[in-house]
Design a protein that fits this description.
Elements: H1 2-17, H2 20-24, E1 30-34, H3 41-57, E2 61-65, H4 72-79, E3 87-92, H5 93-102, E4 114-130, H6 139-148, E5 154-157, H7 160-173, E6 178-181, H8 185-193, E7 199-203, H9 204-213, E8 216-221, E9 247-255, H10 260-274, H11 277-285, E10 288-293, H12 295-315
Parallel strand pairs: 1-2, 1-3, 5-6, 5-7
Antiparallel strand pairs: 3-9, 4-7, 4-8, 4-9, 4-10
Helix pairs in contact: 3-9, 3-10, 5-12
């Protein structure tokens, strides 16, 4: 009897040592961090995904905006959070593909410090100019104007993808312009509309609402193909910038060493959310395409894009800061 009681006591102690999250996850609200400001294109997508995850998981998913350093602040917070599944990262390819080439030293390791959950969407960027402050209607016209007065004109970037998009344009088109970095795309868009910037490469999710308002014009998209939502806007390659092809993605990560059960629960819920017709319609309406995928898919796309973005950044002559 004493042996049975001792065994039972040991079993209960072991069970208590196993995080409740692994068995019952989630039992309380989940905190989703995003390294970009409210109102940005990725913020709109993150909020839709958070709402969908709430229904699937049965617990609130609270989105917390922590903008700064091209998404690194939020990523670093998640990397150092308790690996219990209650702090997750919603992020674009910036933090897990581009930033390793843009910064001499990151405060986190994009591979070792994270556990992939799944992919959400793919999207390109849109080259925008102000409707009120410029008569430019094509990429060829913009390129000609920039070449006439090297160094005179400025352009804005609100994230790593937008920055690389502009630098790649400068390299392939052979133009000299001044980059003005912002903490997010919305403030860059404000300055573009106000005539303080000549052009901006904005994520399609934020560009489309502005295009509907008529205060900006789309000259081209950055991907290899035209998105469903902008069928009349040419690609950069079609517009004359040969060899131009740049697109991004959104995904969700956990801190490294989170319980496998938590990873599976989150990944399953995320896949269901992204695979719904409603989510597909929402994403396509704002210029993105659904990209449902699991942990292996996210790990693979991050690995491939890290190499791809490294080549693009080096070709653009960008140096790590």
């Amino acid at each position: 009897m004493k042996k049975r009681l001792a065994w039972l006591g040991a079993a209960l102690t072991l069970a208590a040592a196993v995080p409740a999250a692994a068995a019952d996850y989630p039992t309380r609200p989940v905190r989703m961090l995003l390294g970009y400001p409210a109102g940005s294109g990725i913020d709109n997508v993150a909020r839709q995904v958070a709402a969908g995850l709430e229904k699937e998981l049965g617990q609130p998913v609270v989105l917390e905006n922590k903008p700064g350093v091209l998404g690194n602040l939020a990523a670093d917070t998640v990397a150092k959070a308790a690996p219990d599944g209650y702090t997750i990262l919603f992020t674009p390819n910036s933090t897990h593909a581009a930033n390793v080439h843009l910064f001499k030293k990151l405060p986190f390791d994009p591979v070792k410090d994270f556990m992939p959950v799944g992919t959400v969407a793919s999207l390109g960027f849109v080259l925008l100019v102000s409707s009120e402050h410029t008569k430019i209607d094509t990429v060829a016209q913009l390129t000609a104007m920039l070449k006439q007065q090297p160094g005179k004109y400025s352009w804005g970037s609100g994230n790593a993808t937008g920055q690389v998009a502009g630098e790649l344009y400068k390299t392939l088109a052979g133009v000299d312009t001044v980059n003005v970095p912002y903490k997010g795309v919305p403030p860059a868009m404000t300055d573009l509309i106000g005539g303080r910037l000549t052009f901006v490469f904005a994520d399609a999710t934020l560009a489309i609402p502005q295009l509907k308002g008529g205060r900006v014009k789309a000259l081209a998209v950055t991907g290899a193909t035209r998105p469903t939502s902008l069928p009349d806007v040419p690609t950069m390659a079609e517009a004359g910038v040969k060899g131009y092809d740049l697109a991004g993605w959104f995904g969700i990560f956990l801190p490294a060493n989170a319980p496998a059960d938590v990873q599976r629960a989150l990944s399953t819920a995320l896949h269901k959310v992204v695979s719904t017709p409603q989510m597909a319609q929402f994403l396509r309406t704002i210029g993105a395409e659904p990209l449902p995928g699991g942990p292996k898919d996210l790990a693979r796309v991050a690995e491939v894009d890290t190499e791809k973005w490294g080549k693009i950044i080096r070709a653009a002559g960008m140096t790590a800061e």
